[in-house]
Amino acid sequence: MVFKHSRSLKLLGLLALISLVSSCGGGGGGGGATGTGSVSPSGTGSVGILLTDNPASLDMFSGVMMTVVKVELFEESGEKVTAYEGDARGPYNLLRLRNESKPLTFSDDVPSGRYCKIRLTLDDMWLSFKDGSPDYHPKLPGNNKLDLNARDCFEVLENKMIYIQLDMDMGKSIHVVKRGNRDEYNIRPVVFIDVVGHDFKGRLVRLEGGTIEDVNRAEGTILLCNALPVFQDGASGLRDECVTVYIGRDTSAFDNDTNDGNTTEGGDAIPLAEVFAPERVGRGPVTVVGYFRTDANSVYAARKGSKGSKGSKGSKGSKGSKGSKGSRDKEDSDNGNGYLGFNALVVELGEFLSLDGEVTSTIGGSTVNEALNASPVVSSTTNPDRQFQANDGIVKLNNGWVAEEDVATESAWIRLEFDSTISTHRVVLYDVVNTDMQQEAGSIEFSDGSTIPFDTPLPDDGTPVVFDFPTKQTDWVQVNLTQARNFFGLGEVEVYSSEGADDGFNMAVEPGQSYSSTDPLPVALQSAPAGGNGTKIISKNGDPLTSDDIESGQHVTVDGVLSGPNPLFLNSALVIVDTDALNKDIATGIINRVGDDSLLLEADSFVCEPGTGPGFYVVNFTDATDVYEITESSSSIEGDFVDSDELEAGQRIDVSGECSNGELLADTIVILP
Known about the structure:
CATH 2.40.50, 6-stranded antiparallel β-sheet, 39 strands, globular, mainly beta, single chain, 5 domains
């Protein structure tokens, strides 16, 4: 079966992605969803809930946090099914989910039927601020219940699977209220629903913290367990919280598993064959980024066996058969084990950081060593010929420049002067290969007056130390040596120009993450090893990109391992680039009057020139404009799509769209309570 894309709204603001996974009925015994009344007698499926996000203009916040205690599905007749109920799950930072999704819950045995509403019951929601102000916990309306009405109802079918994505636009959900000199914040969540399938992929999915329980190199799969948050009511319904991860020739794999005997530490790219090493079994944490499979054979049939066949409803595979405890027969699906299928774009073995930020500049390819053509000038030298050995391209025993200065009382320097101004982003230093001397501290100076200090000794065996920095223009590069053992000197200095293809970029990391420096963080893009692939660069929808698609000002999510410290940089495994336009034209105000295809808005402010301040402005709309109304009661807060005929004078609305000739053409209008 191919699911048609029932697109509820162009992606705006922050989102929450909810994927409903329905599959065939009956296997796994006990556990799963609970119902109130008879929803459908025809069979059962399974439900999986994921969270994701899309950007909004929320510059003052470092986090919009949410915890969920209950998820319910409402059948067309009004009967409901509990997809999750229990301890608060999260917290989920919706701002960190701009480019991807994360699972909230999966639930087995959801009665098949036609569903038109999803209810989330929140335990808490709070706002964290970039300036370090205390967290703010707004009062949640509607008894903490959020009712989400689908534009088109969706069906959970027996022996089938369906994914549902919820788009939560936090930019329209958070409202500032003045209380004297104090700002307070009201939250009226604006959420939209999409059906995810072949026609609409939705956001990338991140499964993290898993453990490899089995490897199958012949089939190109690993069995990843403890990576799915399963709703269990008694026995486990969704197969031990495991998923079959498919690793294809385009998958990128990276290793930072410091306890594995065959590992390359530091998050380096590895050949794909190394993922299937027997030593990997039982190891974690493992993170995979990609998509749940939506082809009929590998997913829909994977959940349970055929009626009447071996491995059918309620039965288990025979003792000693292929597969782990209670697995179905291989004939049940091309997964061969009855688990959900997942196509991996990236596999991360071990601990990796995932950081959000903005690209500040790109770093050019290291193709030209300008030092080879530079003229060296030194503070002193033990031999006039030796000053030319610091930029001759040779690193060997005792080759290099050695100064005469006394290391106890003086300092020394070498300056490489270029024939013309160069653009550089990288300097590499080598100590003289000699165990009787070592450079312990100093700085790199440029003609623009900037310096890069270092206080970690250079290896005395000639191992290079790389200094990456934002691209700069300079007429010369000078290395100042201020502390050394026995003698000042350098074996080689390399200065790379920013010519050729990009091999990295600098990013300003957003506050509130595990990297706290305000300085731009250099990000290195890895090349492909033999039998593998390098850094995966993709859009937030999973479309392949190259380094040429990375531009200053873009929002990115980067996975990697911090390396350095001379200087510190992020050795990247995954770069997710937000290639969409981030800045929608937005206006808020009260409707003064409504026409057939336009309205007059008494706006608090306006974005379309020449109007910028409070006043009356024209907003145009068409049949393609989405109109979404939020209503609030003591029992819940509810959002639903309505016709433009529901727009009327006196309503307070949020509008987003595109400016044209001083007027705003709306793609979305939200009627606020």
